[in-house]
């Protein structure tokens, strides 16, 4: 009888949990059993591991083999357990010394020829190995550079099972990551505000939204530039901080969207189709996976044609917007996904899209249109921008400023916010709770008086009251003002009012 234990990790949500692969080989009729709440892909690993060991020149034990994946109450999903299974069998069968695997985590998928294939969540697995004090991580070479983003962890990238065994024995040095994997994966060319014509008056509102991380609602007739403005919003947002870049890279890796090995440095921009389901938008499924809201973490979630989204999907966004995370419960399993994004929504003013100019909609059509918009969701919108048809002269002569010039002011405002909020782990004004808003708003008495007057006059909700003050704080930061004055409250209320009216209508 021989027993071996190998450490690996299972992706759980957007992080990882440690798993022990325990192999027991004893005399008896040949059998290969895997226990420990393994899914079909893990159970099928028996045949892949058998073929990979034999085709790599190793002996497959013709005995009774039992493999336990502990803890037994954690569901094991995916082919990333192939390599740990193979290494456990080699140790239990006496072909690899147990000392060679001490302090080493293992993850990877095997082909029938013994080639190592990439797995999802390499960065999350590397972070888990470092968190549990392991010094080395053996994994496919194609994901070595991504895992190498974690400091103080020796990543051993191998191309084949035979090479992996040679590396842990110390007989061969792991190959260096390929140069083509070094760059971050940003296939689309950057967009710039200079492409926008005839809407110079709208740029300050976008600047305020980007500076404070505030949600935006663009409404107006079709073809006026709503989508163009929304898609250029990331170009004026500040660059990702190192911690934010790690989070974005980890999320993209877990869902299989990060095919390069470098760090993602561009803020996410997600624009799901209006037919997306609630689980597709916020996450879910029988085995909970991240939704579009999590893929937009630290970036922008753009909902074009807001009135065409089904009501349950929009309602599902309310809690992620407010809390910055969403909790998915399936059976007895609870999974949390981060959802700290800027919501940018766009919609036509009515079903025909013409608005006040030449609207052909009946009263019933308008009522049905407004009912499809979620009032509670619109109440969480901070900045409303009416996008009208620009005049021909404006189209010919007005060109928006370059994104780089606007971003400089946004970055300066974010730095002032970081000075106040970094101690609380926050990055921008939109993330402040009600208590932090009272502590850091620094509103003058005259500004507070005006805010309460406008609150009663325009029948703002209590949430709307706080959101106006957050936007006012951002306007003051853009101006370099320590305190929030009446002029800041007036401008913030103007950006909010129509949004409140739309929410009341919905």
By secondary-structure content and strand pairing, the structural class works out as: alpha/beta
Overall residue-averaged pLDDT value = 90
Q: Just give the CATH class of the largest domain.
A: Alpha Beta
CATH domain topology of the largest domain: Rossmann fold
Largest sheet: 5 strands, parallel
CATH superfamily of the largest domain: P-loop containing nucleotide triphosphate hydrolases
Percentage of residues in strands: 15-25%
Question: How are the strands of the biggest sheet laid out side by side?
Answer: 11-12-15-10-16
Terminus-to-terminus distance: 70 Å
Low-confidence stretches: 180-186, 499-506
Count of helical regions: 21
- Tell how many strands the DSSP assignment holds: 16
Task: Count up the domains.
Answer: 2
Can you tell me the CATH architecture of the largest domain? 3-Layer(aba) Sandwich
**Shape verdict:** elongated
Question: How much helix is in the residues?
Answer: 25-40%
Radius of gyration: 27 Å
Structure description:
There is one protein chain. This protein has 506 residues and is of the alpha/beta class. It has two domains: 2-181, Ribosomal Protein S5, domain 2; 193-505, 3-Layer(aba) Sandwich (Rossmann fold), CATH 3.40.50. The chain has helices spanning 40-43, 45-55, 82-92, 122-131, 144-147, 161-169, 203-212, 226-231, 242-254, 278-282, 292-295, 311-316, 318-323, 363-371, 375-378, 392-397, 403-421, 434-440, 445-457, 462-479, 486-505; strands spanning 2-12, 15-26, 31-35, 64-70, 104-106, 109-110, 116-117, 136-140, 154-158, 216-219, 269-270, 300-303, 325-330, 333-338, 342-347, 383-386. A five-stranded parallel β-sheet has the order 11-12-15-10-16. A hairpin with a 2-residue loop joins strand 13 and strand 14. The longest helix has 20 residues, at 486-505. Residues 180-186 and 499-506 have low confidence and may be disordered.
């Amino acid at each position: 009888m021989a027993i071996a234990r190998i450490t690996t990790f299972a992706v759980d949500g957007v992080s990882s949990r440690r798993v022990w692969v325990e192999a027991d080989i004893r005399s008896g009729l040949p059998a290969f059993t895997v226990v420990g709440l393994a899914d079909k892909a893990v159970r099928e690993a028996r045949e892949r591991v058998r073929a990979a060991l034999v085709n790599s020149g190793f002996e497959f034990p013709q005995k009774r083999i039992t493999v336990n994946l502990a803890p037994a109450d954690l569901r094991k999903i995916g082919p990333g357990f192939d390599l740990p299974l193979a290494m456990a069998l080699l140790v239990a069968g006496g072909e690899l010394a147990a000392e060679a695997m001490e302090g080493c985590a293992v993850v990877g998928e095997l082909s029938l020829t013994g080639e190592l294939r990439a797995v999802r969540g390499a960065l999350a697995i590397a972070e888990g190995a470092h968190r549990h004090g392991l010094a080395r991580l053996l994994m496919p070479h194609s994901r070595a550079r991504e895992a190498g983003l974690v400091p103080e962890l020796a990543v051993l990238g191998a191309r084949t099972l035979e090479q992996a065994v040679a590396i842990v024995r110390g007989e061969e040095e792991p190959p260096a990551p390929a140069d083509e994997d070094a760059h971050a994966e940003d296939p689309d060319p950057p967009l710039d505000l200079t492409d926008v014509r005839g809407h110079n008056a709208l740029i300050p509102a976008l600047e305020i939204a980007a500076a404070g991380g505030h949600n935006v609602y663009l409404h107006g007739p079709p073809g006026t530039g709503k989508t163009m403005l929304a898609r250029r919003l990331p170009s004026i947002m500040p660059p990702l901080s190192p911690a934010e870049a790690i989070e974005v890279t980890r999320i993209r890796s877990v869902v299989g969207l990060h095919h390069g090995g470098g760090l993602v440095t561009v803020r996410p921009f997600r624009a799901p189709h209006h037919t997306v389901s609630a689980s597709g938008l916020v996450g879910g499924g029988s085995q909970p996976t991240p939704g579009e809201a999590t893929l937009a973490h630290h970036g922008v979630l753009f909902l074009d044609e807001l009135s065409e989204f089904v009501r349950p999907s929009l309602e599902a966004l309310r809690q992620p917007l407010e809390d910055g995370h969403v909790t998915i419960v399936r059976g007895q399993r609870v999974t949390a996904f981060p959802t700290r994004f800027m919501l940018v929504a766009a919609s036509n003013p009515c079903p025909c899209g013409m608005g006040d100019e030449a609207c052909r909609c009946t009263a019933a059509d308008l009522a049905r249109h407004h009912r499809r918009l979620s009032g509670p969701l619109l109440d969480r919108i901070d900045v409303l921008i009416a996008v009208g048809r620009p005049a021909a002269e404006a189209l010919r002569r007005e060109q928006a400023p370059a994104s780089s010039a606007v971003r400089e002011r946004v970055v300066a405002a974010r730095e002032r916010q970081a000075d106040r909020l970094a101690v609380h782990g926050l990055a921008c004004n939109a993330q402040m709770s009600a208590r932090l808003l009272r502590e850091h708003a620094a509103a003058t008495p005259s500004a507070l008086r005006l805010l309460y007057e406008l609150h009663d006059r325009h029948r703002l909700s209590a949430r709307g009251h706080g959101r106006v003050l957050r936007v006012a704080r951002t306007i003051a930061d853009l101006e370099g003002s320590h305190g929030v004055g009446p002029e800041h409250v007036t401008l913030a209320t103007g950006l909010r009012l129509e949004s409140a009216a739309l929410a009341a209508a919905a």
